[in-house]
Amino acid sequence: MRTSRNDHFIVEKILKLFSLNAIDLDHFFPVPLQTKHFIGAIALPLGKHTLAFFRCVRQATICGLLLFFLIADLSAQEQAQADLAQLPTGELEKQAVFMVGGQKYVEAISLLTELVNRLGESKDAQMQSKVEGFRYFLSLGHVFNSDWEAAATAFENFLKSHPKSNRYRKALEFYGDTLSQTKRHAEAAEQYKKLLELKMTDLESLPIWEKLASCYMRDQKWSEAVPVLLTMLQKSRTEAQREQAVVWLAQSYIESNQGNKVIELLPDMLTKAPKARLSIDFNLALLNGGDKMFAAKQDVLALLFYNLVLPPARLLEASQKLEADLVRQRNQFIKTGQVEFVVDINRRIQDLQEERGLLEQTPDFSEELLMRIAQTYFSSNRYYEAFWTFWKIYQDYPNGKLAEDSCYGAFALAAQLEQDAKAKETGLKYMGSFPEGKHWEDVSLQLGQVFVRNKEYTTAIEYYTEILKAKPEHTYKDQILYMLGFSQFQDARLADSRQTFQTLSRDFPDSDKASPALYWVGMTYLFQDKYQDGLDAFNRFTERSTDGKLYEDASFRKSVCLYGLENYPLAAEKLEEFLREFPLDTLTPEAHTLLADCYGAIGDLEKALDHYKQVEDCAVKQSQIDYAALQVGRVYEQLEQFKEMEDWFGRYLEKYGITGDYTQAIYRKGFAQQAQGRSKEALDTYWLAIEKYGNDPKAMGIDIIIDAYCEEFRALNGSHPLDVVRSAALTATQQKERTRALRCERALAQMNAPDAPSALTPADIDAASPAVLLWMAQVAAKTDPSLAESAARAAIDRFGPTQWTGEAFLRLGDFAYERRDWKQAESAFNKAIRNSPVNPIAARATIRLGDAQFAQARYEEAIKRYEEVLQVKEWKGELWPEALYMVAESLKSQGKEKEAYAYYQRIYVLYPHYKDWTAKAYLRCAEISEKLGLKDDAMRTLGEMLANQSLRSTSEYVSAEKRLKELQ
Amino acid sequence: MRSSLTACLLLGSLGLSYSQATSETATAGFPALITDAKTGRTSVANVTKLAGGQLYLIAGNGSVAIPASTVSAAEFDLPAPVKQAAEAYRSGDVDKAVALYPALGPMRSLAGLTKCNVTEEFLNFADTYRQVRKYAEAEALLNSLNFRENKEAELRAKLIRAFIFCDNNQVDKAEALMKDFPQTKPDDFNFPLDRIVRTRIYLAKGKYHEAALEAGEAVAVTRIEAPIYPESLYLAAACYEKMGEVLANRKAGMDRAESDKIMDDTVDYAAVGEAVRQELCLLFSKNYWAKKEPANVDQLLAAAASITLKTGKKRDPETTGPTQSPEDATQSGKKEEKPVWENFLNRPEAKPENEDIDSKL
Question: How far, in Å, CA of B334 to CA of B3, rounded?
Answer without folding.
Answer: 69
